[in-house]
Amino acid sequence: MAFRHPFQADQTAVIKYRLTLMASVMAHLNTQVAKIKAVTGVRAVRIVRVANNQTITIGRYDRKEAWEASAEQIASIWAGFSEFMTDEPLTRDGEMVWSYDR
Q1: Which of 4, 40, 24 is nearest to 85 (CA)?
Q2: Between vectors from CA 16 to CA 10 and to CA 21, what angle results, nearest 5°?
Q3: Model's pTM, two decimal places?
Q4: Are 6 and 99 in contact (CB under 8 A)?
Q5: Among 8, 10, 7, 49, which residue's Cα sits nearest to residue 29?
Q6: Which helix H or strand E contains 11, and what residues bound it?
Q7: Which of 19, 21, 51, 65 ranks highest by number of CB atoms within 10 Å?
């Protein structure tokens, strides 16, 4: 049975990249792992390619307050991707209401 995690919050970003730079985006992601690990409250980051030049990024935090407190660190990480993006990320955040992990 799946259950609700009331203590977790998620932030989602839809990002469009220049198609010719997707390999560079993936390489840059690998250089950001230490910065992501340093963000207090981050439980997971998932990136899903939904089109040739578009991804959805989902960041999972212990709680909304952790996400809010990490805004400066996250902005610094996002700034490193600006050279690859064609538009500003479309971001949304909210409380996780259902999850299933095997």
Answers
A1: 24
A2: 120
A3: 0.77
A4: no
A5: 49
A6: strand 9-16
A7: 21
DSSP 49-102: EEETTEEEEEEEESSHHHHHHTHHHHHHHHHTTTTTBSS--EEEEEE---B---
CA 75 to chain CA centroid, Å, is 11
Among all chains, which residue has been given the structure tokens 């991804």?
A: 55
Whole-angstrom distance, CA of residue 92 vs CA of residue 3? 22
Q: Give the Cα separation of 73 and 32 in Å (integer).
A: 11
- 33: helix, strand or coil: helix
CA-CA-CA-CA torsion sign (4, 49, 18, 81): positive
